[in-house]
Amino acid sequence: MYKGLAIIFGFLFIGETLSEIFSLPIPGNVIGMVLLTFALLFNVINVEDIEKEAEFFIRNMSVMFIPPGVGIISYWGLIKSQAVPIFGALVISFALTLVLTAKFVELLGGGEQ
Amino acid sequence: MNSIGIFLTVAIFYLFSKLYEKKRAFYLNPVMLSIIGIALILRLTGIEYETYMESARILSFFLGPAVVSLAVPLYKQKEIIKAYSKQIFAGIVFGGTLAILSAFYVAKLLGGSKEVLLSIAPKSITTAIAIGVSEKIGGIPTLTAVLVILTGILGNAVGIEMLDAFKVRDRVARGLAMGVASHGLGTARIILNDELSGAVSGLAMALNGVFTSLILPYLIELLQ
Question: Around Cβ B55, how many Cβ atoms within 10 Å?
Answer without folding.
Answer: 18
